[in-house]
């Protein structure tokens, strides 16, 4: 039950990302977050999500919209680029609303799009776009390196020799390498493009929410703080890493990182489902969200 309480708790942590060019969780990670979230939507929330997605001229299912925010941030929505992360100084131990950049950050983006989606006075087009952004932000904020230290682009500038064989960077390790290696080793017989489905089912089997109505109050700052604490932990290998010092993590790091990564995806998916459920079911909460409050307890 501790895991369940952690998933749906209103008083969690904050988001901080450091790297305007980083991709959160890659396409598979975002797809899994949204695929799992869809399983835990209430009937009313699922009906509303389906209704809005049916209006989209590009996507047919909720899980497919969840990487859209990455697709448009260099084109039609260039102003959203800083909304994918939040940065702090190396010495800052707590996420605060003041950490948000002048142009916005992931915590303010979550608050903004939760408010727009929950406001039924908005047009369907506005609410659809807000849904697509909000789904993406919940994935981003649970990729720990979107809460990061200024100056290294969320770990993109920190070189890594991954598992002794691949030259990459720390951000990509947490975006994609961990999940891709896990899926390749766990389901080698599956088509590469379908392995995400097996991982989604595996994660769902670990979430004790069968028959449970999920409701998650908005807490962008709290969710960010969780990622902050993860990336600054001793085992993460990030706090004192630099572009000049390549990280060469071994198998123990991979196994521990895989555990953390899987848990973050589960948390992000259930929180996304719970937030959408609450925004659809509680107009008063939706109105409060529209004010852009960073934390609602």
Tally of discrete structural domains: 1
- Counting DSSP H or I runs of 4 or more residues, the number of helices is 11
Helical percentage? 40-55%
| Computed CA radius of gyration, to the nearest angstrom | 18 Å
Summarize the biggest pleated sheet: 2 strands, parallel
Low-confidence stretches: 1-24, 291-297
Order of helices and strands: HHHHEHHEEEHHHHH
Read across the widest sheet, the strand sequence of neighbours is 1-2
Q: For the residues shown, what is the average pLDDT?
A: 87
Number of strands: 4
Proportion in β-strands? under 5%
What are its keywords?
49% helix; 11 helices; P1 Nuclease; mainly alpha; 297 residues; two-stranded antiparallel ribbon
Structure, described:
There is one protein chain. The chain is globular, with a radius of gyration of 18 Å. The longest helix is centred in the C-terminal third of the chain and has 31 residues, at 251-281. The protein has a single domain (2-289), classed as P1 Nuclease, CATH 1.10.575. The protein is built from eleven helices and four strands; from the N terminus they run H-H-H-H-E-H-H-E-E-E-H-H-H-H-H. It is mostly helical. The strands form two sheets. A two-stranded parallel sheet has the order 1-2. It has a two-stranded antiparallel ribbon with strand order 3-4.
